[in-house]
From TrEMBL:
InterPro entries: DUF480, WH-like_DNA-bd_sf, WH_DNA-bd_sf. Pfam families: DUF480. It comes from Nibricoccus aquaticus. This is DUF480 domain-containing protein. Gene3D superfamilies: Winged helix-like DNA-binding domain superfamily/Winged helix DNA-binding domain.
Length: 239
């Protein structure tokens, strides 16, 4: 296995959450994807399929988006009919995977980013919402794909953790985001806090919150102007 990190420095906990949400929603709600800022905040704070459960706002998510865009993992969607700023992931451009089941690999990584280390069996069950065909696939196939991701040239995207006392099976973890980031503010896992209980997240922002908010507002304004320009062209018969 290639032990070098696939990205340096590693993503923060919140950057990993934002990236995981974008990959997940591209699968589960394609009609609403790319995501608006509001939809992305809701996805980050979602209580189902998340560990830890977070409570973050637009400034924190905006700063995380800025960091991800700097790392070329997220881009601003600028369609002609875009009325508000929307965001999409560009995971496949930064981490190209020469796999026949590439999209299943994306789903596995998204699930690890959203819910932390899991067994192969747990991942198979939890990823069915993104890749329904996994319902009929055995755990061995998932484990084999995870092994390919771990052995990826240029840095393994996942790693198999040593089995801990009391655990029947070894767990897999992603190697893209630092899951410890933010935990110093008294934020534990869902198991430690109790299911459904959210915790405010303290993160080291890539930029001051007011700057992130202003950037988001400017992006939304540009997207709105593009929409108005497209409508004006249409009205003038310019397509």
């Amino acid at each position: 296995m290639d032990v070098s990190l696939p990205i340096s420095p590693a993503l923060s906990l919140l950057e990993g959450r934002v990236l995981g949400c974008l990959i997940e929603k591209a699968f589960t709600t394609p009609d609403l994807y790319p995501l608006t800022m509001n939809a992305l905040v809701l996805a980050c704070n979602q209580k189902s399929n998340r560990d830890p459960v977070l409570a973050v706002g637009e400034p924190e998510v905006g700063a995380a988006l800025a960091g991800l865009r700097e790392k070329r993992l997220v881009s601003l969607f600028a369609g002609a009919d875009a009325r508000v700023a929307k965001y999409r992931h560009t995971f496949e451009q930064v981490f190209p995977l020469d796999f026949s089941n590439e999209k299943t690999a994306w789903a596995l990584i998204a699930e690890l980013l959203l819910r932390g280390p899991q067994t192969g069996a747990g991942l198979r069950g939890n990823c069915v919402r993104m890749v329904p065909s996994l319902e009929g696939e055995g755990v061995d196939g998932v484990e084999a794909l995870l092994g390919e991701l771990a052995a990826r040239a240029g840095g393994g995207l996942v790693q198999k953790l040593a089995r801990q006392p009391g655990q029947k099976e070894a767990r897999w973890a992603q190697r893209i985001a630092d899951e410890a980031a933010g935990a110093g503010a008294g934020m534990g896992t869902g198991a430690e806090r109790g299911k459904g209980e959210s915790a405010p997240l303290t993160v080291a922002l890539a930029m001051p919150p007011e700057v992130a908010q202003r950037l988001t507002a400017l992006e939304a304004e540009v997207a709105g102007l593009r929409g108005e320009l497209a409508e004006l062209k249409k009205a003038l018969g310019g397509g």
